[in-house]
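request received
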Amino acid sequence: MAVEKLDPSPITQTKPLVQVDRLKKYYPIAAPFRRAVHFVHAVDDVSFQIRPGHVFGLVGESGCGKTTTGRVLVRLTNPTSGRVLLEEKDIFRLTKLQLVQFRQSVQMMFQDPYESLNPRMTIFDIVSEPLDVNGIGSLREREERIADMLNQVGLTPPQAFLFRFPHELSGGQRQRVAIARALVTNPRFVVADEPTSMLDVSIRTGIMQLLAGLREKLGISYLYITHDLAVARYLCDDIAVMYLGKIVEQAPAEQLLRHPLHPYTRALISAVPVPDPSYQRPPVNIKGGVSRPVDPPPRCRFYERCPLATRRCANEDHPPLVERDRGHWVACYEV
Amino acid sequence: MVQVQVQAPLSPAPSGAPVPAVTEPLWKIRWRLLVRGFRQNWEVFRESRIGLIGLGIILFFGLFGAAWPIMMHFVDPNIYNPITGFDPMSMPHPSPPSLRHWLGTDPIGRDILGQLMYSTHREFLIGVLAALITVVIGTLIGTVAGYYGGFTDTFFMRLADIMILFPFIPLLIVVGSFIRMGMFEFAWISGVLGGFGGITIVLKSQALSIKVRSYIDAAKVAGGSDFHIIRAHIIPNVMPLSFLYMMFNVTGTILGEATLSYFGILNIDMSWGMMIHTADSAGYLISFDQYWWLWLPAGLAITLFCAAFYMVGRGLDEVVNPRLRKR
Amino acid sequence: MSSGAEKTRTPLLMLDHYTMHYATKRGPVQAVGGVTLQLHRGQSLGLVGESGCGKTSVAMSVIRLLPENARPVAGRILFNGIDLLSLDDEQMRRLRWKSIAMVFQAAMNSLNPVYRVSDQIVEAITTHEPEVTEDEARERVANLFEMVGLARDRMDRYPHEYSGGMKQRAVIAMALACRPQLVIADEPTTALDVIVQDRILREMDEIRRRLHMSMIYISHDISVIAEVSDVVAVMYAGKLVEFGSAEDIFKRPQHPYAVGLMAAYPSILGERRQLETIAGEPPNLLDPPPGCRFHPRCPFATEQCRREEPPLTEVSPGRQVACWHPVEPAGRASSSRGQYSTRPPHAADQA
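response:
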């Protein structure tokens, strides 16, 4: 069983499942007894679309806003402005009934398998929670559904796992439980926040295969958040690279890795270590380090570190994301 | 041919008639898990010598208190009743320990051992009731304040500050002189005051550390209400700490009770503090070697009883905080 | 890569059938089981394996900073010919930092937040080299800062004024303060972003070459190990399963576990090949499986593997494998990376 990818081309005509439209999320920098005057621009004017059955990868370094974006998409936080549409419905303007449906059709997976399961609940109760809180099914039906779910995520036989506690399982098994919980309500869209980054290599591949397999079998779309371009390459159809709250480049996965255009993407790719002792990676030619986007000046976010920066980059606004090639979008004046 | 490619353990859902995965009623399984969890915790607790000693002392007091009603069947209630008894045979009172009165008699001729035994169950009752009230209130407020934050949090935290700073015992002395404060009233007041006090700060910070775990986010994404999250996730994870604090609270309550009884403020027929109060108000607290049986047994009982709950708390601490465990 | 001329001399560090257990209530955890390896002067050794495979235990044994319940059961650890296990605490304390230094996994926490970074490093220098004056030490710190790519004027700041990458650099500077012969770096870049990781790895490698130090890198990330190591030791469940030059290990792995690790690793280079998994999970070291510890997960396991433990045997000069049925590399591994033939010798007739 290996990681296989769907051919992304034939469904280009279908309507997008998720549309993110000019999403902004600013966090005030807390000042007691005063109105906040400084803001962290965690997500700043981000737009993208995810088609049904596709995996959209959001890649970037820590603090680039990728997790915040994911949290807005599942309504864990409210955006400062902008809209998120799921099947053309604004997820922040749902009726009560629609909200109940939304909660079932959108789920999230988390990074740390040791923190994402309540240590005082049995596996049964953990996987059953999304059904419980939405009042789905009778007890009998839930039991069957959960056993089936555990089967599907490779925790077989389910009887051996149902009434154990998280601390009795290994990291990989815990992550499988978390996946079962996320998929038990048959969601159409799942935000996966680095679900493999804390696992060992030999375990990680199994989880990646599981995610890819379930997506094929159940037709789920993912927003896959990761800092690891190599993992994104194996799981994602499209990859968007974020830098300080902005998407700087977006393209089909292979295209992005083979022909990166944005200087930041290039730096990111050449910084990834390669398991080949004789391979000499090109030097990473960007300056400085990532800062926090506190009230950033209107110019290009990457200006200070960019090897290509010109006067224009300093004087004009952050460059718009423009399509350079089919499906390949870049936000840079100089490429 | 063998290949490194190894099948991922992903077998398809069994088709056809599904075998029921859960063959027993859920409550039975849950009960078994509960018993097993209890047993595992007991294994850890057993490792703690201080906890076992504490538990031993509590058990001793339990038997000691339970023995009282049985004993009353064998002795003359006119002589040995702890409140109304009087022994005309061993004058003058207070009489030192003798075969008739193992721990002597008090200034009005009542048997000290009987008083000591009779008081035991009320100490248990006051201590545990007050601690329970404290813990219930503290847990609820702590989790709610921790979970919601903002104004709710600020309000209860400032309230807790006031409770901590406020001179508790003098307040009760004043209150006690206005109203008739019996055993249950005292337990209530002490429990409520404790519940809004320091324990909320501790439990709130625990709730805060749980609130940021990603299983809380998972529950929110699944559509769990605030009530669901507090009930199903936060409280169960705060509970062990609450239980631990309950043990320490018993200690605090008993000490408070003893102090107030000593001042003669509590309207209680008999308690260990009361015994010392009786000796004091009759003017017999003079020196260490004279009339020692009037204050030493009661004082020792208070000290041991409080220490026992504290020691059990220390033992439980090792169950609750795995980091304290010895390998 | 490997410094051939020095092979004839005694190695700087030699582990000789080193075995170590952790005593627990449920019995001994067999964390390190008979590890034998050599590290020569100026070489860098990559210790790679999954969490719980014993790589950190090996490192902590070398610098003797093991928890109280660690019990070295057998074997020797020779540093410049001296058995470190036989030294008393005082002798070890003198050796530590001066000859063997360590960069810890949670480097962020190895700086004391209430002291200036410079003072912490100066103190480390003056306690180990009492003849050095404070001014000399400060000058040395300034040079160290430049070496690890930090501005000189940063040294008098407090740790909280440093970013994650800067803290890591400061910790590396501290490790280099007494010019140790051996530096052990335990997951030195795991918590960092790739761009910072890239810079720090390059700098560490450069410094090692310049100062002709030996280095042990410990990581679960095989690509990091591939980039900075001359020789690589692959560990699994407390056992050393394969040892050899980085070139050999990564291009022609022979132990099925090493083969599996390489095949499971996604790369951003070359063709998108299929990733393969190693079924199952690492064993519980309280009760490791008999025979080869990898046999329950090994696709090539035979009856022999289940019964007898394979010894670490030299299959070619400088190359050791602990396996009854090492995987034969079919043909030269070409530039198309990751295309391993994974056919074991005895499997040919089963095709």
